Amino acid sequence: MQSISQRTSLIKAEAKRLGFLSCGVSKAGFLEEEAPRLEKWLNQNRHGEMQYMENHFDKRLDPTKLVEGSKSVISLLLNYFPSEQQNPDSYKISKYAYGTDYHFVIKDKLKSLLHFIQEKIGEVHGRAFVDSAPVLDKAWAAKSGLGWIGKHSNLLTQQVGSFYFIAELIVDLELEYDTPVTDHCGTCTACIDACPTQAIVEPYVVDGSKCISYFTIELKNEIPGEFQGKFDEWMFGCDVCQDVCPWNRFSKPHREPLFDPNPELLSFTKKDWEEITEDVFKKVFQKSAVKRTKLSGLKRNIDFLKD
After folding, report:
1. Angle at 203 between CA 301 and CA 239, to 5 degrees
2. Could you report the per-residue pLDDT of 7-43, keeping only the tens digit for each?
3. Which of 44, 178, 221, 303 is 20 to 30 A away from residue 118, measured at CA?
4. Catalytic amino acids?
5. Which residues form the 4Fe-4S ferredoxin-type domain (predicted)?
């Protein structure tokens, strides 16, 4: 029978072997500090038309309501920083969407990790989450000591910046808990100053309904005309606040072949994007998160950039 400390070390070592950047653990329970923040954010309509953000308020703040008997939240980071970037004469796609949809890649790794835990530790029940259920990923990752939430509201880590995915395993197993790290944003306001649509309304608060990622991915209706000319050529997502962050000078390319992009995606010019057909769209984005917008959504975004 392993000690709590041995169990925790076993899990962290396996997470590393599976290719995760880092792994931290926190005690499952009510997120006291997050509750008033989330409530205020929703009341101010910062979520725009993302109605799903209003659902499951209690589950969002307490994983024990999501996974019965849960004792620990295991938070994991997976790097997606690419070694190559798009042709400079191109409409831009957020780096996270270059390769295979992260939901599939990470879900497989999480299932392997849960299987490993059950094999090595015993009967453990748990669920894997990748940004697809009411779990406050960034809050849990911060609580687990994997980084701090920056002024652009993304998780930041001193050694590697912020170009990574966050995922969780919520399990009914007691583990050794990590402690949060301190905030290292200091007086820097690079992300606030650079945001093309002024979506970072105050340090640590992003108005989701003004964010380019929201307009180009989540918004199903027409993009409001008042934002014309402010998209800085982004047609799917936006990386501006991360690109300008001084901590991202430490980003290193990922080693996950599934995140490598289709070469055409990197070489396409604006003209290629403007003339893209359904067949080419399917080929280039075969397993990509960009499929969420469908070709019609991508064309709407490109038309908005052209006007």
Report:
1. 30
2. 999 999 999 999 999 999 999 999 988 888 888 887 8
3. 178
4. 131
5. 173-205
User: Quick check: helix, strand or coil at residue 100?
Assistant: coil
Query: Which residues contribute to the annotated binding site for [4Fe-4S] cluster?
Result: 185, 188, 191, 195, 211, 238, 241, 245
Cα separation, 122 vs 124, in Å, equals 6
Q: What's residue 44's pLDDT?
A: 82
Residue with tokens 């301190």: 182
Mean of the pLDDT values across residues 85-108?
A: 95
**Close Cβ partners of 136 (under 8 Å, ≥ 6 residues apart):** 31, 34, 38, 60, 61
pLDDT of 200-236, one tens digit each? 999 999 999 999 999 999 999 999 999 999 999 999 9
The DSSP bridge pattern shows strands 164-171 and 92-93 to be: unpaired
The answer to whether 162 touches 155, Cβ cutoff 8 Å, is yes
Determine how many CB atoms are found less than 10 A away from the CB of residue 261.
Answer: 20
Alpha-carbon span 73 to 110, nearest angstrom: 13
Report the C-alpha dihedral over residues 119, 122, 126, 130, rounded to 10 degrees.
-30
Per-residue pLDDT band at 75 (split at 50, 70, 90): very high
